[in-house]
Amino acid sequence: xxxxxxxxxxxxxxxxxxxxxxxxxxxxxxxxxxxxxxxxxxxxxxxxxxxxxxxxxxxxxxxxxxxxxxxxxxxxxxxxxxxxxxxxxxxxxxxxxxxxxxxxxxxxxxxxxxxxxxxxxxxxxxxxxxxxxxxxxxxxxxxxxxxxxxxxxxxxxxxxxxxxxxxxxxxxxxxxxxxxxxxxxxxxxxxxxxxxxxxxxxxxxxxxxxxxxxxxxxxxxxxxxxxxxxxxxxxxxxxxxxxxxxxxxxxxxxxxxxxxxxxxxxxxxxxxxxxxxxxxxxxxxxxxxxxxxxxxxxxxxxxxxxxxxxxxxxxxxxxxxxxxxxxx
Length: 328
Description:
The protein is α/β, with parallel strands linked by helices. It folds into two domains: 2-178, NAD(P)-binding Rossmann-like Domain (Rossmann fold, 3-Layer(aba) Sandwich); 187-327, N-(1-d-carboxylethyl)-l-norvaline Dehydrogenase, domain 2 (Orthogonal Bundle), CATH 1.10.1040.
């Protein structure tokens, strides 16, 4: 089967490696010529996923229409900021029955819409072919064939089953869910609290006891937020909620956690963005959207505190004390 991966960053390249490992032919797209050339000629992506050799069945192209043409399944692994534009660009060239898998964990700035909702607005094909992919999926881990588990959601059983089959193997377990909103929102909102874990680490207060308390506080707030936005609470207790929260909160490879850590250590905002790859982490954008969308109807003291610390350097030194007050 031909698979397309749009966005050859850390996650996109790891997905390409996984798909090829499962026996599929993969064509990747990226806007950076050096990345495309590296994948084509050297079978690796030294900029975003160093140390991983890609199978010979993975190639890359700078032209979206070449990448998606005849692809039976298309993975979109670009930041949510670019999702609408990218879907508009490739949709005219995709096969009508192609399954589109969203690997972007974010909400659209301004509208606050989930990626499935954005896709339904701009795609030229049936929205029920869109599959949401979420859960604890650190790319550096599953690219090295370390056991990983994710969850997918879609209203179309055929599209869901195709995605399940394409992704599943002995080291990559896939679960399915009927709760599209919960799967998407769980993977989105946890990024906020991953920033908080980073602040704890940067302040050298990342003790296991404190982090355990922070997990329980964050999960409660995540449930309150996502319930208001249409998610089922039980979904947040699974891979797309608690599982993803723990992974991004504790992993050294989490961009959101690392960003919070750098800020707490005193690094200036723009320098911290550059340090993690030059793109503002999803958690920062998600914070703004969530506070605007449900801030007036849901109590979000942790999210508000994290927002303050991200944007006001003087507040960061008091983060631990303020967290403790919220939990009391």
